[in-house]
Amino acid sequence: MNKVVLVGRLTAKPELRYTPQNTAYTRFSVAVNRNFTNADGKRDADFINVVAWRKQAETISRYFDKGNLIALEGRLQTGSYDDKDGNKRYTVDVALDNFEFVESKAAREQSSSSNNYEPTPYDYQDSNKAPEVNVENDPFAEFGDSVSIDDNFLE
Hints:
This protein is mainly β. It has a single domain, classed as CATH 2.40.50.140. It is built from two helices and six strands, in the order ββββαββα.
C-alpha cells in the first residue's frame, strides 16, 4: 500500500503550468510540523514536495497561497533525471489524489493580521534555521504518550 496523508502550510504560491500536451499541473511544497520537539525544545518541520494534475492543479493554484493550510492525500512517487553536469538525481514527490481546504479565507486573514502571529515553517523555507515554536502554548503538550493508528486493531 502506498498512501500519504499530510496537513501543512504551503511554502509558496502554487504556479499553474501545462505539459506540451496541454495538461494542467502544479508543483508545490508543504511545510509539515513534526509531532515532537527537538533537544532545544523547538518543533522542526519537514518540507514535502507535492504534484497535482488537471482540475485539482487548477483549483489549488487559483485558491491557495503561501501560508495556507491544506490537508492532502496522495501516494509517494519517485523519479530520476540527469542534471546539467550529467549526474543522476533522484526525486520523491507526493502525487496528489485528494485535498481539502482546512481553514476559511476569513480565518486566514484574521490570523495573519492578529498581533499573536507566530512564525510557521513556511516563513523559513529559504534558510537552514528551524522555526522557533512556543511549546508553552501547545494544547497537546500534556496529552501523554503517542497514539498508534493501526488498521489491524480489530483482528
